């Protein structure tokens, strides 16, 4: 992955669909958060401990996305929840991301085809 490529990320708090855009084609991969994936786990009696665990898992999810974003010059974060804004706020103060153009847009839930079309439309304007 080079810094010349463009990336669209449709995301919510549990899943991110990374859509790499270039003139030939789009390629999609998925990164999932570990939050709420441990359904078999016993419910912790202490809500504070559970909340801290979820915050840690969310931070790991955003860190993983950030590692991918560093390889791009233009990034579009979009989706139906506040996860995109939370990720943006995490990245904007980090000097490693200061030369990356990051845009944030609110959208509804979308199929993979709709996500790819949205990214294509955004980057071909």
Description:
This protein has 125 residues and is an alpha/beta fold. The protein has a single domain (6-32, 48-123), classed as eRF1 domain 2 (Nucleotidyltransferase, domain 5), CATH 3.30.420. Helix content is 36%, strand content 26%. It is built from three helices and five strands. The chain has helices spanning 47-69, 83-92, 112-123, and strands at 6-11, 15-21, 26-32, 74-79, 101-106. The chain has a five-stranded mixed β-sheet with strand order 3-2-1-4-5, with helices on both faces. Helix 2 (83-92) links the parallel strand 4 and strand 5. The longest helix is centred in the middle third of the chain and has 23 residues, at 47-69. The chain is globular. The two termini are 23 Å apart. Residues 37-41 have low confidence and may be disordered.
Terminal-residue CA separation: 23 Å
Strand line-up of the largest beta sheet: 3-2-1-4-5
The major sheet is characterized as:
5 strands, mixed
Q: How many strands?
A: 5
The CATH superfamily label reads: eRF1 domain 2
**Structural class assignment:** alpha/beta
CA-based gyration radius = 15 Å
Shape: globular
Element order, helices and strands? EEEHEHEH
Provide the β-strand percentage band. 25-35%
Can you tell me the CATH class? Alpha Beta
Low-confidence stretches: 37-41
Q: In total, how many domains does the architecture comprise? A: 1
The number of helical elements comes to 3
Please give the CATH architecture. 2-Layer Sandwich
The percentage helix is: 25-40%
Mean of residue pLDDT values: 85
CATH third-tier fold name = Nucleotidyltransferase, domain 5
């Amino acid at each position: 992955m080079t810094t010349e490529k463009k990336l669209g990320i449709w995301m919510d708090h549990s899943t991110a669909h990374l859509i790499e855009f270039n003139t030939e084609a789009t390629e999609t991969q998925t990164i999932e958060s570990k939050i709420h994936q441990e359904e078999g786990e016993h419910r912790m009696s202490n809500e504070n401990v559970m909340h801290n665990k979820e915050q840690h898992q969310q931070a790991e999810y955003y860190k993983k996305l950030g590692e991918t974003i560093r390889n791009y010059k233009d990034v579009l974060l979009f989706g139906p929840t506040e996860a995109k804004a939370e990720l943006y706020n995490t990245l904007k103060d980090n000097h490693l991301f200061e030369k990356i153009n990051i845009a944030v847009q609110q959208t509804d839930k979308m199929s993979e085809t709709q996500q790819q079309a949205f990214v294509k439309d955004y980057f071909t304007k």
